[in-house]
UniProtKB/TrEMBL annotation:
Belongs to the TonB-dependent receptor family. The keyword Nucleotide-binding does not apply. One of its GO terms (biological process) is siderophore transmembrane transport. This is TonB-linked outer membrane protein, SusC/RagA family. It is found in: Cell outer membrane. It holds the Pfam family Plug. It is a multi-pass membrane protein. GO terms for molecular function: siderophore uptake transmembrane transporter activity.
Length: 997
């Protein structure tokens, strides 16, 4: 991959530089003050970008959405567009997208703060009961977005203090503009999108052998014909032979056309890939806007209806938003913005190992089972469901010829249509602000913002299902119902004084003095039935066979009070010096530890003004900064707290405290130094931005594992240090620019080196996550965050050692087998415009970042994949490659009966299934046409555009077999290094039309 990527970059950049020189046009003039423009920074403060002493990158709305299908989550549409921003998007229906700026700084990971028009909003992801409910950024109405500015480092985010640790993403919403004549403007957009499975992200099955763990049938019917190996959810069984008649799973259901019939022993015509749908999405939006100086209004409504890959999966989302800017007097200005999201989702896919349909397809399956037959059996039996047919759950994974109860897996259609989850989410974000121009150079702004999300999620386990752990007690039962209600709310009160003074004619100072009060409220309640459902099909807590346990309830309220100040000095438009200070008081830390300060200082030197380089380099800036940010504690970590476990004989019972609190917790802190430069050549035909940074994060707040002999399993402490060092590069090229034709290239590349410097005295490893297959994700001293630990081969002089007793590999447990941190990430977008036509495509790249595939770990051992049936592998003895403990070559033969143990987890250690997570993707592509004005004459339409867009069209390169390297389990910590039961990736195509009236 390295050679391929390097060649592509060299070809694109060298040719672009050559053409740019040849295409220099004399009339390409750019005024100095327009070189970089104005951007929105922390607290919604607008600044000239050239004055900033830190790295930030702005993405306009058109670059976010015009070139791709609408994912429903704006986070996903940032992939490959920002240097230093690593976006991980999974394939869960309505699932999370993880954002990471400049590497992992906290031991527990962390996402950047999201800010809309200066007000923070919640972007937490919710994952419960192995279901990914997505992250809250998906609630933002994409039609409202004017631009996104990514504040990468500590200096850029220092004004957010204890929330600026992981960077900030600033979203600016649109203001109403209307028509040139001041009348009401109407914009209508409509899009249809369809997905097609990328077959490189789904297993290729072998078609030579069927159900079983050995090449023999287990039992025979009375007529002497064989029964299939029903209880085996693997495909190491007998070789297919169309002349061999076998009683299979559907031979025992009276509604089956094969009832009491034996069928030819052949591979299925319709494999598991036919289970999935082609997901379709329909998006319609209308925007009304009207504006003039001093007052404007915009209202937007958007509806998204989407069907997922899984049968019985559907999402319906409605977004409403209103923004009003109004000057009450010439000196009193007001802004009001409110957005409301109503989302109803059904059929989210289960993630992880158990009960995940995709896990069954990837790891435990019989290649003789036809998915179309499973669908027919479900449809035929569900309307006459009773105990004799497992209430419609007629499955291939029956226990035996005489017992049709599921052995390991439900019928996938029964699972999708009966055991589905559903959830409803309501989100409201509202703010109001007024600004009074006290003097010509002083203004006062008051602002209140409110962000509230409520989620009601329901899970179902239908009567007739495979018994599984379920509900509050986590007992294994065959039916049940659970309900979870979550409320998250944040209120911010801000008062700011903006000032600007001219010290001399060429020196001025400007800044902000202000204060903030933030209140956060969180509430969650989970309750479930116990012992199963009394009446099948009625999903209510009152339909419980046993008395439900006490609900699991959590409620917290926290408050942070802050004051801040900024001072920006402008010296002759050539040197800029900025300083900020924020002090905060947190309610989650005890007095004495709960007040902390976050400073920053930045400088920017405009070298092009000092050296007068405008003839060949029209802009050149050097910048440097130092800043500190941090993070406070979450609630209830200072003192013991208890959870109710119910009532016994009238007396309340409470759960044991397993985590020991720490009264003297301190806030965690991150210190960062950054230097960088920006340069514009040939009148902006070439632009370059380079940044180097070094970050040290200390006093992590973590629950550290301790011996259970202490009475606890963990204790909360301040400990640990993580360092990050990195380089970011942005390059913009305009190789060709004429009156009618323009070619733009935007490239970004970043490399972050992460290292865990220390944890706690005597502690060298901190467990982050545990994976099915005996692998764990860790932070280990001396290594990059995200170390994968598991079993490796035993080596002798570099050769794998064979156990002479078994002829299989000797394994060495608890070894470092990989690391999830990528070496570098990057993206290149090419955009072309010719008169009314436009074309663009984005190549998104990641180098490195290891992934453990539990699918391959189990799937090879179950005989599913094509590798397990190549040639005569299953029919002849084999000798594993390696040496015996004395160093001689291995000569121990495994008999054909043992071949099923020669691949996968039975023989090979987990190290064998760690893959390089590199990829190169054609992430986005679009072709658009703006209809000429002459065609619109005589109509009320003054603008019309039609576009064909695509997303994830081609995985040009990857190393992870049968899966997408991005498709991890969920958001947050679950987005690192674990491929298991992921849904296949789709190539998405869409048609967008936009009319302006």
């Amino acid at each position: 991959m390295k050679k391929l990527t390097t060649s592509v970059l060299i070809l694109v950049l060298s040719s672009s530089l050559a053409v740019a020189n040849a295409q220099e046009v004399k009339n390409d003039t750019v005024k100095a003050q327009e070189i970089e423009g104005v951007v929105v920074t922390a607290l919604g403060i607008k600044r000239e970008k050239k004055s900033l002493g830190y790295a930030s990158q702005e993405i306009k709305a058109s670059a976010l959405s015009d070139g791709t299908t609408n994912t429903g989550n704006i986070a996903a549409q940032l992939s490959g567009k920002v240097a230093g921003l690593n976006v991980t998007t999974n394939n869960n229906f309505g699932g999370s997208s993880n954002l990471l700026i400049r590497g992992v700084k906290a031991l527990g990971g962390g996402n950047p703060l999201i800010v809309i028009d200066g007000s923070p909003v919640n972007n937490g992801n919710t994952q419960a009961n192995s279901i990914d409910y997505g992250n809250a950024l998906s609630d933002i109405n994409q039609e409202d977005i004017e631009s996104i500015n990514v504040l990468k480092g500590a200096a850029a985010s220092a004004l957010y203090g204890d929330r600026g640790l992981n960077g900030v993403i600033v979203i600016t919403t649109k203001n109403g503009k209307g028509k040139d004549d001041g009348s009401l403007g109407v914009t209508f957009s409509s899009a249809i999108q369809v997905g097609f499975i990328d077959k490189s992200t789904f297993p290729e099955y072998q078609t030579k052998y069927g159900a079983g763990y050995a090449q023999s049938f287990g039992s025979k019917a009375a007529d002497g014909l064989n029964y299939a190996n029903f209880g085996a959810d693997a495909s190491w069984g007998p070789k297919f032979d169309p002349n061999l008649m076998v009683y299979q799973w559907d031979s025992f259901n009276p509604l089956s056309p094969n009832y009491q019939k034996a069928r030819p022993w052949t591979a299925a015509k319709n494999g598991p890939i036919t289970f999935f749908n082609n997901p379709a999405t329909y998006i319609n939006s209308v925007t009304l806007e009207k504006g003039q100086k001093g007052k404007n209004i915009t209202f937007t409504y958007e509806n998204m209806m989407s069907d997922g890959l899984m049968p019985n999966s559907h999402l319906n989302k409605n977004n409403f938003s209103l923004k009003v800017n109004y000057d009450l007097t010439p000196k009193l200005h007001s802004t009001f913005y409110s957005s409301m999201t109503l989302q109803d989702t059904k059929g989210r896919s289960i993630t992880g190992y158990s009960n995940n349909i995709a896990t069954g397809f990837r790891q435990w399956w019989q290649t003789n089972v036809d998915v179309a037959d499973l669908q027919s059996m479900y449809l035929a039996n569900i309307n006459v469901a009773n105990s004799s047919n497992n209430y419609g759950n007629v499955t291939w994974s029956r226990k035996s010829a005489t017992n049709g109860a599921p052995a390991y897996w439900n019928n996938p259609y029964f699972q999708a249509y009966q055991n589905y989850s559903s959830d409803k989410r309501y989100r409201n974000f509202t703010y109001g602000q007024v600004t009074y121009d006290l003097l010509d150079n002083i203004s006062v702004t008051g602002k209140v913002s409110y962000d509230r999300t409520s989620l009601t999620a329901e899970t179902r386990l239908a009567v007739g299902s495979l018994p599984q752990a379920f509900g509050q007690s986590n007992n294994v039962i065959g039916s049940g119902y659970g309900r979870r209600d979550i409320i998250q709310a944040e209120t911010n009160y801000d008062l700011m004084v903006n000032y600007k003074f001219n010290i001399t004619d060429n020196i001025n100072i400007s800044g902000v003095l202000g204060g903030n009060i933030r209140r956060n409220y969180n509430s969650s309640i989970y309750a479930s039935t116990e012992g199963g459902l009394v009446v099948p099909g009625i999903y209510a807590l009152s339909n419980s066979k046993k008395a439900p346990l006490a609900s699991d309830e959590l409620e917290s309220t926290e408050q942070t009070n802050s004051m801040y100040a900024t001072a920006s000095f402008d010296f002759y438009k050539k040197f800029y010096l900025d300083a900020t200070w924020r002090t905060a008081e947190s309610s989650t830390l005890k007095a004495g530890n709960n007040i902390y300060n976050y400073p920053s200082i930045t400088g920017a030197l405009i070298m092009s003004e000092i050296l007068d380089t405008k003839e060949w380099m029209n802009f050149w800036k050097l910048r440097a900064n130092y800043a500190e940010v941090g993070g406070s504690a979450t609630p209830y970590q200072l003192f013991n707290n208890y959870r109710s476990a119910g009532i016994l004989s009238g007396t309340g019972i409470y759960n044991s405290i397993l985590t020991r609190p720490f009264e003297d917790l301190r806030p965690q802190r991150s210190k960062e130094f950054e230097i960088g430069t920006e340069a514009h050549f040939l009148r902006d035909r070439i632009t370059l931005d380079v940044a180097y940074y070094k970050t040290k994060t200390i006093d992590q707040i973590i629950p550290l594992a301790v011996s259970a002999g202490t009475g606890f399993t963990a204790k909360v402490i301040n400990a640990g240090r993580i360092d990050n060092t990195g380089v970011e590069v942005q390059l913009g090229l305009v190789p060709i620019k004429t009156k009618d034709f323009t070619w733009n290239i935007d490239a970004n590349w970043s490399k972050n080196q992460n290292k865990v410097i220390e944890l706690n005295p005597g502690i060298t490893n901190y467990l982050l996550n545990s994976f099915q297959g005996g692998v764990s994700l860790n932070a280990r001293v001396g290594e990059a965050w995200g170390t994968l630990v598991g079993a490796d081969y035993t080596y002798l002089n570099g050769e794998k050692v064979i156990d002479p007793k078994t002829g299989k590999y000797l394994q060495n447990p608890n070894q470092v087998i990989g690391n999830t941190t990528p070496d570098w990430i990057g993206g290149i977008r090419n955009s072309f415009s010719y008169k009314g036509f436009s074309l663009s495509f984005l190549i998104d790249m990641r180098k490195g970042g290891d992934i453990f595939s539990t699918d391959m770990y189990y799937g090879l051992s179950s005989g599913l994949y094509k590798e397990t049936a190549e040639g005569d592998y299953r029919d002849k003895p084999i000798v594993l490659s390696g040496v015996l403990p004395d160093g001689t070559p291995n000569n121990i033969q495994l008999s054909p009966a043992d071949n099923n143990g020669a691949m996968g987890y039975k023989t090979q250690p987990s190290r064998e299934f760690v893959y390089d997570g590199s990829y190169i993707k054609l992430r986005e592509a679009s072709i658009g046409y703006m209809l000429p004005k002459s065609l619109l004459e005589g109509t009320k339409i003054y603008d019309a555009k039609i576009s064909i867009v695509g997303r994830n069209l081609w995985i040009i390169h990857k190393n992870l077999p049968y899966a997408d390297p991005e498709a991890m389990v969920g958001g947050g910590i679950n987005s690192y290094g674990w491929s298991i039961g992921s849904m296949p990736t789709t190539r998405d195509l869409g048609i967008n039309v936009t009319f302006k009236f």
